[in-house]
Amino acid sequence: MLDEVTERTEINDRTEEGWSRKPVWVTVDKEKGKQNQIKGCEIYSVADPEKKLMFSSVFADFGITGLHSITFVDYSRKKAVSIGGLKRQKKEASRFKTHATERNLTYYDSSITLSMLDREEIRRFLITAPSLELPQGEKGFKADVTIHHEEDEETMAALLKTNDGKGISCTTRFAPLSADGIIFIGDRIEKLSDRTLAAVSAIRNRGTARNEAMWIAAFGYAGTMKWSITLSPDSSLLNGVIVDKKLYKIGNCHFTYPRDLVSSAWEIADSDGMLSMHFEPFAAIKAREKIYPMHSESEEIFGTFSGRIKIRNIQLDITEGYGSVKKAAGKN
Predict the structure, then answer these.
(1) What is the DSSP string of 300-321?
(2) Calpha distance 266→283 (Å, rounded)
(3) 261: left (phi over 0), alpha (psi -120 to 50) or beta
(4) pTM reported for the whole predicted model
């Protein structure tokens, strides 16, 4: 496993792979007098275990196209619905810029509005989807959420070389974060419970992105302890567990899952015996888009997580965690 990166590092063609417990990699607008086009996405997820629901939003920029969506997951009914999609971007559409501005994102069209505003220790997350048909039979969803990121909360960050070194991908995941706010379900207004948690994932790519990728992102409570996991069979650099604000890096993980991804349970374990997770899927959302010269296929599988985390003097028995498995394949 590569050593931890602790110093601020600008991303360029010579940047080495690595991982960090805080955001250290910085994109730059220009290199050698040439403009850099930074692609990527921002994913906000909020889960309320008392209300048995989770909702998330994606703001993605692939260059010629952009993806913007809102997803609502009902854990009581074991259903998930989503609205939005991939669209060709106008030439004047905003791109991800430098570190100082890249996390203030707003998008709207006739079906959705989303706003992701970063104020370092405070993030505002506002979304509306008035035409979304919810699993409860109601129509329309809105949320106004404040996400809190304390200074001593560590993150899972990693920088990978992709496609034989032709591309660079930087991923940073902030979780589990406390959150509060209100949601609008149809004509009802409800306050999120005190146990609500959130996760913020940021991915920035330069050059040719990975053609295929799979990763797990989940979080929840084990008693009063907050935990989150970020796992991938593709690279051990992406694998980590956060418990009580601290990151514990883990190595290679093995995934066992059905061919169709949803018909039976998944089993995930790391090579050192520190983590063993059981994932029970119940819903999947698929997307397939073709906007020349880009081809994209993705699938997100939702379900509940249970299992055990045993690292150093920490042992957590997890009975219910919220999250998903994401699988993507594409060329751009």
Answers:
(1) EEEEEEEEEEEETTEEEEEEEE
(2) 14
(3) left
(4) 0.92
CB atoms within 10 A of CB 175: 24
Distance between CA 209 and CA 170 in Å, rounded?
Answer: 11
Q: What are phi and psi of 236, to 5 degrees?
A: -70, -20
Residue 308, both tokens? 């055990």
Give the three-class secondary structure for 83. Answer: strand
CB atoms within 10 A of CB 267: 14
Separation of alpha carbons 88 and 108, rounded Å: 14
Q: Which of 219, 266, 270, 271 is nearest to 245 (CA)?
A: 219
DSSP state of 89: P
**Rounded-to-integer distance, Cα 116 and Cα 146, Å:** 10
**Which amino acid is present at 314?**
I
CA distances from 131 to 139, 141, 142, 265 (A): 6, 8, 10, 32
Surface-to-core class of residue 320, CB atoms within 10 Å of its CB (0-12 exposed, 13-18 middle, 19+ buried): middle
What is the SS3 assignment for 236? helix
Residue 40: pLDDT band with limits 50, 70, 90: confident
Give tens-digit pLDDT for 83-111: 997 776 665 555 665 454 456 889 999 99
* Pair 25, 9: CB distance under 8 Å: yes
Plot region of 274 (φ>0 → left; ψ -120 to 50 → alpha; else → beta): alpha
First-last CA distance in the chain: 30
The pLDDT score that the predictor gives to residue 183 is 98
Plot region of 220 (φ>0 → left; ψ -120 to 50 → alpha; else → beta): left
